Amino acid sequence: MQRILAKHLVRAIAQIERVDVVLNEAQRSADWDGNTEAPTSIRNSIAKNYSSLEASAKAMGAVVTSKSANRAVKKLRARKNPIKGNEMVSLNSEINNVLDFEVGDIDFYCLNSGANEYYNPKSPLFGEKVENRIPNASNDISEAGKCFATGRYTATVFHLMRAMEAAVQELSKSLRIAKIDREWGKLLSDIGSKIEEMEKGEERNKWSHAHATLYHVKQAWRNETMHPKATYTEEEAKEVFDAVKAFMRHLATLLPSSIDELLG
């Protein structure tokens, strides 16, 4: 999928329209002669528009249009065999057709207000610490954001559950549990046993909270998400998104901690 900023398409169309205006005004003037060399002022004005068109077309991946605009600039600024008035009209029509051919059949979809913070966030959706401490969840967290931004709410929850699975494995690894690629239920049982071995106190309470949250997620969402008939609304997906984000951020604060003392 290609990402095209609307501003580049709007600017490209605007440049061609400006050239149309310049040419129409020139053709209405009394001294217009399409078979003679076009006035320097008009050629320079149109060349400037085409330079902008070239940049906008290149930015949105319209390679053919960009190259066509570049060739047009060279023709307009050529000192030998200067372009004639009628040739400029034909040239602009040609470039217009090239742009229409290249992007005219592309379907553009617009994200709702605020959706881009999920689709193309400036920083990791769940924060830098989660990104660094649970790297195997990064891709699914990113995909969950993209799915949420585009209204694919069931897919959002699916990716969040995959991210949680990576979190469960990372938690199991930190607690030195063997065979971390097993199903959630078995890992949760082992995680609970490891936490019971810890010395009572605030640190153990934090791990117990993480374990309880994992169990809740498993019972409330993961089991349902794996069912083929399960679907989620925007509100439900947002609830899962926020809950998973809060848990992952909490877990990330535990993972860097040494558990040597807690496990004896």
Essential attributes:
single chain; about 260 residues; mainly alpha; Four Helix Bundle (Hemerythrin (Met), subunit A); 2 domains; rod-shaped; disordered C terminus
Dominant shape? rod-shaped
* Contiguous runs where pLDDT drops below 50 for at least 5 residues: 257-264
Helix residue percentage: 55-70%
Q: How confident overall, as mean pLDDT?
A: 84
Strand elements, count: 0
Helix count, per DSSP?
Answer: 12
Structural domain tally? 2
Radius of gyration of CA atoms, rounded to a whole number:
30 Å
For the biggest sheet, the summary is: none
Can you describe this structure?
69% of the residues lie in helices and 0% in strands. The protein is rod-shaped, with a radius of gyration of 30 Å. It has 264 residues and is mostly helical. The C terminus is likely disordered. It is built from twelve helices and no strands. It has two domains: 98 residues, no CATH class; 148 residues, Four Helix Bundle (Hemerythrin (Met), subunit A), CATH 1.20.120.
Set down the secondary structure blueprint.
Layout: H1 6-28, H2 40-59, H3 63-77, H4 85-103, H5 116-119, H6 128-133, H7 138-149, H8 153-174, H9 184-196, H10 202-225, H11 234-254, H12 260-263
Helix pairs in contact: 1-2, 1-4, 2-3, 3-4, 7-8, 8-9, 8-10, 8-11, 9-10, 10-11
